[in-house]
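In response to the reviewer comment on reproducibility (Comment 2.3), we provide here a single inverse folding case reported in full, input and output, so that an independent group could reproduce the run without further information from us. The structure tokens appear first.
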């Protein structure tokens, strides 16, 4: 009877510890991608032994933090309406995608330093596949260019998003304008040669 009673309590404690560690790691790594295990354990209110009882290495912890952040971002992206004109759908997708990039940018920096390129690609697969499907539909409907590979067009979106983050850090772009700048840039890059580039739904403040 005692063992039966204690087992659920231990599992509940473990779940709380894991949640606290992941929360603390997300905050610490967002502030400093080089945050140590000791700093994360202290922020989580647990000892290093407890942390290592759940995550055998710093790399394993970072993997779990990034995977959780991407899953949370995907939940918001799955709610985006991608029906209708692919160009309008792309604009609708950019804003929450951009916000997700901002939230996990430093986490991805930390992940890039300790995870394999194969694992990094795997983590990016779900968000990238959503854009790939939209780009393919736009190509089939004749509103996105077909003279460049789909993978290249998807990469343009990601690079422009990261470029916007760098411009904000340098003080040359307002975060309020980022989504509009990204949308205008990517629509221009995706539009077939000789076609009129559509306006994004949002405008950059002058």
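Designed residues, in position order:
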């Amino acid at each position: 009877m005692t063992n039966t009673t204690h087992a659920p309590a231990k599992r509940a404690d473990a779940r709380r510890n894991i949640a606290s560690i992941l929360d603390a790691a997300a905050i610490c790594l967002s502030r400093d991608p080089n945050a140590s295990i000791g700093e994360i354990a202290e922020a989580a209110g647990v000892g290093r032994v407890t942390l290592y009882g759940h995550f055998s290495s710093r790399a394993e912890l970072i993997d779990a933090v990034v995977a959780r952040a991407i899953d949370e971002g995907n939940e918001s992206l799955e709610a985006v309406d991608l029906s209708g004109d692919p160009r309008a759908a792309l604009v609708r997708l950019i804003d929450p995608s951009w916000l997700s990039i901002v939230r996990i940018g430093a986490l991805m920096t930390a992940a890039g330093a300790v995870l394999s390129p194969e694992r990094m690609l795997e983590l990016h697969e779900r968000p990238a596949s959503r854009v790939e499907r939209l780009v393919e539909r736009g190509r089939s409907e004749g509103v996105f260019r077909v003279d460049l590979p789909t993978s290249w067009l998807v990469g343009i979106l990601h690079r422009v998003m990261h470029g916007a983050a760098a411009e904000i850090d340098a003080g040359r772009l307002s975060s309020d304008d980022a989504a509009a700048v990204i949308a205008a840039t990517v629509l221009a890059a995706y539009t077939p040669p000789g076609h009129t580039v559509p306006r994004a739904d949002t405008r950059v403040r002058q």
